[in-house]
Write a structure and sequence with these properties.
The structure is a homodimer of 570-residue chains. Chain A has 570 residues and is an alpha/beta fold. Chain A is built from 18 helices and 29 strands. In chain A, strands 1, 2, 3, 4, 5, 14, 15 and 16 form an 8-stranded mixed beta sheet that branches.
């Protein structure tokens, strides 16, 4: 209390100009997200708070704001940090300078590998970081009963985080069938996090959508059509517009971005890899692209900050206003979202800020997560009774897949892939030493002529997935990942071409962001030797085991028809 | 937990149409406050929640919604229930049928009389009522050191309510000078309710406004000009547009009401008497009047519900959407806000609902609050050294007063009122038996030719205030209130013409709403015998002791110059 009173005294003095402010941004153009006006003046910062705006102030330290525009720090409404393949400490080095002062993350990927240890690792990281990382509590580990994950989070495991102050609620409740059929474990979680439940319900409509919402779910980041988003909006759902590396909905949902809709919208990246962040940006890219495409800048900046703050009950941020958190982005070009400086909690974001952090939490518990025995080419043979085959059709830059039915080369007993039809073989191998299951199937769209690529990132159970045109190369690729304890591998004609290690849970690199970026560029280049022309082949592969997104998927237990929520014969 | 799970199972079933809903509003036009669309369909209600919207449902009980439009229940963002002169139980009988399903009240008036007993009485009432009465914790009792109140709430008294679940925060922090000069007691309260502080800062601008906001204040209902409101909006303040019985800002602030501003606006009544509620309405009147005056209906209905719900962190209400509270207003004419039915927590608001309530809390602690000895005409004599006099100029339908300087009849020793100049004498008498102080002054604008009127309602300390043209009549009027233990009195030429008793703390009637309405009409009629033409003479009188609103005021300690926040000689 004593410290709080002293802080209040200090900010009241500084706001009145009785004493100099800790930091003053002089003569800056302030974008008032309340009225939509831009006005020129000073912003006085006292500690981690804004003391005054729009008047003239002097301070110990001054930033020349002329030519710059101040907007509130951006908030990523839904992100899996693991998709950037870097640790939370590196994640903030990557996105905080891009204006993302708050991110609502779901440690769902690492939780599937390591359970509550993963949640605790993220919470512990969040406590030591500069940016505000809100850690939602992963609701669906494993995501479905159709797969084998490294860990299971029981309702009790999840509910013990219900009062966690660094969390804003339950992370995306993907188990829609579980809600609709009233599975007790699912409802226990929903009851514990009543009204603070993030959603995930692609293409859900009508009464089923009503029921899902009635269970207390409040948002969805999975809208891929305007009609879908509009029904959800009508029914009170917060629409989190996503621009990930694979799933990109910003262009489709652009017409939603109006000042009228702004209170009910958010921006999120969900799964965005370091290459995209480095090359095109993060929320800064979404903001610039939306404005360039004609969206109202007031709506855009509100959505990027205030609306999402309100949605998650973060009532201390989202405006450049006295008493609010001093999370401020200074733009040299507000239409293009060109960032000159970022302030987080009143501190200038630079190398010195990151250097001032303590040590990151120890990640060693996540090492040695691949408990799979070496495999041989025989493991990948597909025996069948007919040539007709359900084939997963990938759609570039979309999470959705097609459910194709194709005739594949068939000798009456064994079924093979058909590179000439762009059909490769795909396998998912249980990697936690639990049952050694291997799911086998076929996939169209990778454009591979030879070789194989393998990944220990495979949503959401993160078993090893491998796609290839040769069983031998597939085996070699998987074995390379066992040696590296996770990561990505490229094999061609009996030779390991490249391996990018991700030793932390098979998901995260222990390298810095810049190194990971280089490694990714190198391995993407390596993939080309197989003939695969995809921009993000490993991301595209990583989402194929995800049985909560339509239409056809594959897990360690087999090929899944998502509509029927069951396995089908290959 | 068991009951919560059963409720979840039930609502999921009813939302899917697996089982009939408890209640269905059939074929109603739903005003979607998210998208602004109107669509026709059913609303299924399960218990106190909305289960489904926009689909076809069947239920145990059905309401024909054809020709009706459904909007979310209204929220009064700031109200003193005491200003309706009825108990909380009667207040909801009065406003809930008008669509006000939630009200954020400040028991400031009764707290000034009886301290924490008053807060507890409101909280206890709220627990037993049908509507949601959110009880803010009165922050300034007494409002200023310039007056004598019946009770004092220390910082400790106030802070012990900081975690009260039926409260949304600290009630209007009127002591602006206390904030700016960092009075420790004031800052302790601000620290305990950080970010949940209601404001009250008429005409505050510039750095002083910044400092007040930096202390954690979040809204203001005292804006009387557009410019004032716009600066406050720019600085992140929620503007609660007020239409009370005296202070009426709706017309002035109408241009603010746009879809763009809607997230940052609310509607409130502050102080509204039963006559206005009966004759013209409550929030329903504000809504109809705003729409009739050209405001965007989407903005208006958002402001009346969703925006205010969000502002106070009431995340379960403000939309007609699955999972939200079934607080629904069914309108026969949505432009005119004509109400056909109201549902509160899924229950139809009717006499049966009110009859189903338990007993109200015992109010007997508030009886016998007038501890004043009988007075004589001599008590009201004003002795002075000069004819020049600061005179309070009242402005009809405004809380603000003018600071006039007039020459009054003066015999070298005693100063008298001047009915021919429309100047009457005014006195405020300390009524709690603490010091027997009497403040004396002069007031212009009551239009009295003879007699006196007296009131035990006198914001905010609620000492007895009396205005008249004859010292004898003033004494008689005060003595009549001592006999009735509070209320309003009209005296003319030595005769008590009428008394309306308000025996609970001298503020509230123990009669029902309808009776209070009749009594008020009768006493307003009675006032006319004095020549006073004011529509609401007692309300106008009741606000004259309020030393937090510019410019000239009077308390039991004397005439106050609000600008200087000190007494001046009469």
């Amino acid at each position: 209390m004593r410290r709080e009173l002293e802080e209040l005294e200090k900010i009241i003095d500084e706001a009145q100009g009785n004493t100099g402010a800790s930091l003053v941004i002089k003569n800056v153009s302030i974008f008032h997200l309340t009225t939509g006006e831009m006005s020129r003046g000073d912003i006085a910062v006292c500690g981690d708070r804004i003391a005054g705006v729009g008047e003239t102030y002097g301070g110990e330290r001054e930033i020349d704001g002329s030519g710059l525009t101040a907007v509130p720090g951006f908030i990523d409404a839904h992100v899996h940090v693991e998709s950037s393949m870097i640790t939370p400490f590196e994640f903030e080095r990557c996105v905080l300078p891009r204006g993302v002062t708050t991110a609502v993350c779901d440690p769902h990927e690492l939780s599937n590998v390591a359970g509550t240890k993963a949640i605790d690792f993220f919470l512990d990281s969040a406590r030591r970081m500069c940016m505000d990382l809100r850690v939602q509590i992963s609701s669906c580990v494993p995501a479905t009963p159709l797969e084998t994950a490294g860990a299971e989070l029981s309702a009790a495991d999840v509910c013990r985080y219900a009062a966690e102050p660094l969390s804003s609620g339950l992370a995306e409740l993907m188990n829609v069938p579980g809600v609709l059929s009233k599975v007790p474990e699912v409802l226990e979680k929903a009851a514990a996090f009543k009204g603070r439940i993030d959603g995930h319900c692609p293409m859900l409509v009508g009464k089923a959508l009503n029921a899902y919402l009635a269970a207390g779910v409040r948002n969805c980041h999975e809208c891929s059509t305007l009609e879908e988003a509009q029904e959800k909006l009508r029914k009170g759902m917060q629409i989190l517009i996503r621009e990930g590396s694979v799933a990109r909905n910003l262009d489709t949902l652009l017409p939603l971005i109006t000042v009228g809709n702004a209170p009910f919208l958010g921006f999120c990246t969900d799964d965005r890899n370091p290459l995209d962040i480095a090359a095109t940006g993060h929320l800064d890219y979404m903001i610039a692209h939306a404005i360039e495409s004609g969206a109202d800048p007031l709506a855009v900046y509100r959505i990027a900050s205030y609306s999402t703050a309100q949605h998650f009950g973060l009532r201390d941020r989202g405006l450049i206003a006295p008493g609010y958190k001093a999370d401020i982005v200074l733009l040299s070009d507000w239409r293009k979202c060109r960032i000159a400086h970022v302030l987080k909690n009143g501190r200038i974001v630079d190398d010195a800020l990151f250097a001032s952090r303590g040590l990151p939490p120890d990640p060693s518990a996540f090492l040695n997560s691949i408990q799979l025995q070496k495999v041989t080419a025989d493991c990948f043979k597909v025996f069948s009774k007919k040539a007709e085959t359900p084939v997963i059709g990938i759609v570039e830059l979309s999470l959705t897949t097609e459910h194709l039915e194709l005739e594949l080369p068939f000798d009456g007993r064994e079924k093979k892939c058909a590179p000439e039809l762009d059909v490769a073989k795909i396998a998912v191998l249980e990697r936690y030493g639990k049952n050694g299951g291997i799911g086998l199937g076929f996939v169209k769209g990778f454009g591979m002529k030879s070789g194989a690529i393998a990944s220990s990132v495979g949503h959401d159970s993160h078993n090893i997935c491998v796609v290839g045109t040769s069983d031998e190369d597939m085996a070699l690729a998987v074995n390379a990942l066992i040696d590296s304890q996770g990561g990505f591998a490229v094999v061609n004609r009996g030779k390991v071409v490249d391996v990018m290690p991700l030793p932390l849970g098979g998901l995260l690199s222990d390298h810095d962001f810049e190194t990971v970026e280089k490694e990714l560029l190198r391995i993407h280049e390596a993939v080309k030797v197989t003939g695969c022309p995809l921009e993000t082949p490993f991301l595209q592969l990583a989402f194929l085991p995800l049985p909560v997104i339509p239409f056809l998927r594959i897990t360690d237990r087999g090929v899944v028809d998502v509509a029927g929520f069951d396995f089908i014969e290959v």
